[in-house]
Every structure is written in structure tokens, then in C-alpha cells.
Amino acid sequence: MSWQAYVDNNLIGTGKISKAAILGQAGGVWAASPGFTLSTEEQAAVVRAFSKPDEAQANGIRLAGQKFFTLSANDRSIYGKKGGDGAILVKTKQAVLVAEYTAPVQAPEATPIVENLADYLIGVGY
């Protein structure tokens, strides 16, 4: 399956995720939903946030020009909030899944979708 198919089918296709991207930990966007453009600086900051979760917690995360308040951050998952909307970032062995959801979707509906895809990708070596 192509990386774009993971974004289109496994994330956006669920109806719970509004925007998504898969970033390579070594750099670059592997796939993204239409119109979801992360700057080079944002991509680097997202990857770096997993090695410095305290900084992500203190400063928030920026995705496609939108700043999210960081609810929690560790070396696997970062959860952000902006008003009624939210962001879920999950690191795999080689990639970072970046997903946003918009109200009325809530974190308990969106988070398992992203976390389960990350578990699958880790299981197959990515």
C-alpha cells in the first residue's frame, strides 16, 4: 500500500480525522491530505519534539501555521488542542503520523485511529 493510501483510507477515510500527514523521521513528507502543508521548520520541530517532549509541552506544537496547546507529550505520542479541535502525533520506527480532528469529533474517537495505525506500522518495521 502506498503512503498516500494510509493517509486517505486509514486516517481521513475514517471520517474522524480531518487532516493528516506522514513524515519521515529523517525528513520529508511521505504523504499528506490535500491542503495540509507543513513547513520545513514545522516538520523538523515535530520530529524533534519526540526527543524533547518537555519543550513541546512548554511551547506547544505548530501544524500548517496553526498553534496547538500541548496536552501531553512523551517519546511516542504528543496530543494537542486548539479550541474544540485537536492534534495527534505518533512516532513509529521510521515515521511520524500527524493528524488533526475538528469538533464535534473528540479525542477519544480520533486518538485510537492514529495510535492503532502507528502500532501496525511499527509491527511491519516502519
Automatic annotation (TrEMBL):
Taxonomic lineage of the native organism: Eukaryota, Fungi, Dikarya, Basidiomycota, Agaricomycotina
An example Gene Ontology CC term for this record: cell cortex
Location relative to the cell: Cytoplasm, Cytoskeleton
Subunit record text: Occurs in many kinds of cells as a complex with monomeric actin in a 1:1 ratio.
Keywords carried by this UniProt record: Actin-binding, Cytoplasm, Cytoskeleton
GO molecular function: actin monomer binding
Family according to the record: Belongs to the profilin family.
Stored SMART domains: PROF
Function: Binds to actin and affects the structure of the cytoskeleton. At high concentrations, profilin prevents the polymerization of actin, whereas it enhances it at low concentrations.
Record-linked InterPro entries: PFN, PFN_euk, PFN_sf, Profilin_CS
Protein name as annotated: Profilin
